[in-house]
Design brief:
Blueprint: E1 2-3, E2 15-17, E3 26-29, E4 39-43, E5 50-53, E6 72-76, E7 83-86, E8 96-100, E9 107-115, E10 125-128, E11 135-140
Parallel strand pairs: 1-3, 2-4, 3-5, 4-6, 5-7, 6-8, 7-9, 8-10, 9-11
Length: about 150
């Protein structure tokens, strides 16, 4: 799946669950996409290899961290996933971030060295069963409340 900048789902849609796409190999969305999504779920995709998300996606707070909203990010049980990359300010108003049972995940990049604020309001970060993780690169002020 590959989405251009400013991509959105149908009006009124607040959840994006990629789990039904059993043969999905990669998910990529560019900048300022899916702002109305309150719940991003990826689970049980055995062929998924990479997730790349651009700047200011999955957030209502553009270039900021405006306020904590009831929004959740869940990524689990994807046995082939090797790369997770999330741009600056994306998910900045989310309050839950969970990574679990990703046995081949090697690289996590969230934000950049300049202001990032991704997952700014997440209080408890859960990275569970990531035995192949080699690099974790977190941008400035990511997980500020953790």
């Amino acid at each position: 799946m590959d989405f251009d900048s400013y991509s959105q789902l149908e009006e009124g849609t607040t959840s994006m669950d990629l789990s039904p796409f059993a043969y999905l190999k990669s998910f990529k969305c560019r900048d300022r996409s899916f702002v109305s999504i309150r719940q991003f779920i990826v689970s049980g995709l055995s062929q998924l290899e990479s997730i790349q998300i651009g700047v200011n996606s999955f957030t209502l707070a553009k270039n900021s961290y405006d306020k904590k909203l009831n929004r959740e990010f869940h990524l689990r049980n994807c046995s082939s996933l090797t790369e997770l990359s999330i741009g600056r300010y994306s998910f900045s108003d989310y309050h839950v971030m969970e990574l679990e049972s990703l046995p081949n995940l090697k690289s996590i990049i969230i934000g950049s060295s300049s202001e990032s604020f991704s997952f700014y309001y997440v209080e408890n970060v859960e990275f569970i069963n990531l035995p192949s993780l080699e690099s974790l690169d977190l941008g400035h002020s990511c997980f500020h409340h953790a």
